[in-house]
Amino acid sequence: MNWEYIASIVNSTLRMTTPILLAALGSAICSKVGVFNIALEAQMLIATFFSIVVNYFTRNVYLSVLAGIFSGALIGYIVAVLQVKYRAADMVIGTSMNLLVSGATSFLLYLIFGLRGKLVDSSLVSLPKINLPLIRDIPFLGRMLENLTIIDYLAYVIAILMFIYLYKTVSGFRTLSVGINKEASESLGTKALRIQMSVVTLSGALCGLGGVVLSMGQVTMFTENMTSGRGFIAMAAASLGVSHPLLTIVSSLFFGLCQSIGSALQNVIKSQLTMTLPYIATILALMLSGWRSLKSKNGRSI
Amino acid sequence: MLLEMKHITKEYGTLRANDDVDLSLREGEILAVVGENGAGKSTLMKILYGLEKPTEGDIYINGELQKFRSPHDAMAKKIGMVQQHFMLLQPCTVAENIVYGHEPKKSGIFFDRKRAAAITKELCEKYGLSIDPSLIVSNCPVGLQQRVEILKVLYQDASIIIFDEPSAVLTPQEVGELLKTIKKLASMGKSIIIITHKLSEVMEVADRVMVMRQGKRIKEMAKSETSIEELSFLMVGRHIVERKIPPQETTGTVLDVQDLVLSGSDKKNILDHFSIHVDAGEIVGIAGVSGNGQSELIECITGLTQITSGDILICGKTIVGKTVGERRTAGCACIPEDRYLWGCAKQATLTETSIMAHQREPAISRYGILNTKGIQKFTSGLLERYDVRSGGLSQKTGELSGGNLQKMIVAREIELNSNLLIAAEPTRGVDIGAMEFIHSRLLDKRAKGDAVLLISSELTEIMTLSDRIYVIYDGKVAGEFRKQDATEESLGILMMGGESNEPKAV
Predict the structure, then answer these.
(1) Which of A49, B112, B244, B389 has its CA at a distance of 20 to 30 angstroms from the CA of residue B129?
(2) What residue spans define the domains of chain B?
(3) What is the rounded distance in angstroms from the CA atom of residue B506 to the CA atom of residue B504?
């Protein structure tokens, strides 16, 4: 193993982390206001599709990114209306949204383009890659940060901003209070429902951005179900990071690393096996955090 | 007159919760509104606080007609309410809770938590209430949490403060503190309405008393012109007779707790070599300030917590290591401390609640299939015999009033016909009528020759009902008394951790 290899693992970890982190932040902020949103997968997948659709017709990066964000937010808003406003069961809404979007994107792919499976076109434009001047010439660091997109950096900025908003501002405090005790927050005039709905919509937008990175970052294409469970991994990351934005960065990096190792080992071990690595890690991580919280709960009751 | 409510009527369907009620309040006065559960006190206050709209009637403040559509409108007119069920953000600090809604800001958007703490301090000094602003609410005892609620109302600059059953959840010490606070607030010019059914508290703080019964205002008088006896007569509508409990021979030990040790997380024993016994045909009281190991003792006996060492026997057979179900079959029924947390499932219907622990009886189920008719008969029987006022068998348990739910749980546990009944705080927060009723049922149980272990923080309850009394302090038995030897003073000293001067009784 050499430095070059390690740097390339770090580089691929960073790229793998971005979509997970963005979706995990979306999941985290939903749990902070007491909404259990499991439609993350749908929110991401729809964005991968529509960003590529807009990309195909306009060849404009900015419009494509916006299309991704908006389509994700739209799914988020639908979830908000059904789950928060009309109090439909979260499991039902989340699962059906995930299935619906999965089917709808495949269907639309066929309807619009007459294609099955995937949409690749050489004329699609990808997100511009940033190679920082000076840093790119430093051997190890340069390789680590090679060819990242602006969104790869932005994800961390968003996490930090989210932390500042939730824990340092008055408005963030009110937002948190809704998740802590909705009744109490309402009794003092906070419009809890509106806050919950905006937050779920925002989580859609964040997942949308995560979807855009998938379809226009490392590769520029849409394939059916290309999110392949990242929405669920993101839920695990958020839960492992106790829905705290900064801790969620750490847990997302962990899952990014697992994915990166998984794909790096593909040549050594059968790929079917390595692909399971992130999911095994998810189960182990959730068991660990569950065991820890169980232990601390028991400690308190005695 | 600061506040007047005139001809208030509130109807829920066919039920008249309030029937042409008048209420008035002067500045700096403490008005007590008393009545049994369901007398319409809370409804009246909800109307005043904008949570409910009256079917008829008007509210005037300083002679001006008011229309309250929400608590927000009421708050704007300086009416504040300290709710019975606290509206607090448990994981947040005291200061954060107090300033909520009008948080101090830095540069327009940032939450100035230092100022919030300073504001809390100022507020505390101004009203002579002490509390550390940086404490996390969930770590505060109930009394302090209530103080946070009071400070919240004061921060909103309320001049009329409503206390809804403020002492229901407090320990006797905390009640004393609370009453002092209420008097102090009134002396500073706040006008106070206190809703309660504890008449001793009324006699201590109120200037005026208004009695309600079945939605009507029965009578209103100055405190100096009335007495506890008169008030309880007006509340219940009949005279409460003092109870005569016939002496009774005991036969054999039912519950035997031997040298029980339960160690805590920090090596300190929560229950420390604790030995008690309860015989058939007696009620044994455990007196003590709550938090001295009573809850854990119940959990050890019922099987919710595993003991560290020692032995617990029911009718001579050890139950250590047995499951909760096996212990129940062995003859241990329990009226739990917290009726909502342990006693019922709030979303369950009354029939479901009533058959919990009865589910395997032949009248309820056969071969694992529930017998709907049998269950309905069983439940209606319970509701009728134990005077539970409900809206029908399919009502949600959580919708019953506190007193009625408690009667329901008492009914269910007594009907198990077990050798041992553990009754933990069996009358906490219920009105005089329900309390009398529950006490009678416990005495019936004793008369049948069963054993009752009574755990209560109400000393009067312990002293009235028990044949024998143990005092628990810091997880140890601090003393044991026969009924005739126990006085409030001697128990009180031991409860506070003092040493008894007399040689140990019994």
Answers:
(1) B112
(2) 3-236, 253-345+416-495
(3) 7
Q: Which two tokens stand for residue A298?
A: 């028991």
Q: Is residue A255 assigned to a domain?
A: no
How far, CA to CA in Å, does B479 sit from each of A15, B123, B251? Answer: 69, 43, 23
pLDDT digits (tens, 9 = 90+) for B320-356: 999 999 999 999 999 998 888 888 888 899 999 999 9
Domain that holds residue A179: 3-228
- Which value, in Å, is the radius of gyration of the alpha carbons in chain A? 20
Class of domain B253-345+416-495: alpha beta
Q: Which two tokens stand for residue B273?
A: 């070599």
**Contact partners, residue A105, CB within 8 Å, separation at least 6:** A45, A46, A48, A49, A222, A224
Q: Using CB atoms, which residue from B92, B96, B111 is nearest to A169?
A: B111
Asked if pLDDT for residue B211 goes beyond 90, the answer is yes
Cα–Cα distance measured from residue B404 to residue B423, given in angstroms and rounded to the nearest whole number: 16
CATH no., domain B3-236? 3.40.50.300
What span, in angstroms and rounded, lies between the C-alpha atoms of B367 and A173? Answer: 54
CB contact under 8 A, A189 and B72: yes
To test the contact with chain A by mutation, choose from B86, B87, B139, B266 the residue with the greatest count of A C-beta atoms within 10 A, namely B87
Q: Where are the beta strands (DSSP E) in B67-215?
A: 79-82, 105-106, 110-111, 160-164, 191-196, 208-213
Average pLDDT over residues A149-162: 96
Rounded CA-CA distance A210/A155 in Å is: 9
Pairs of CB atoms within 8 A across A/B: 47
Domain tally, chain A? 1
Question: Is A182 in CB contact (< 8 Å) with chain B?
Answer: no
**Minimal CA separation from B229 to chain A, in Å:** 38
Two structure tokens written together for B231:
């008030």
CA distance B358 to B250: 28
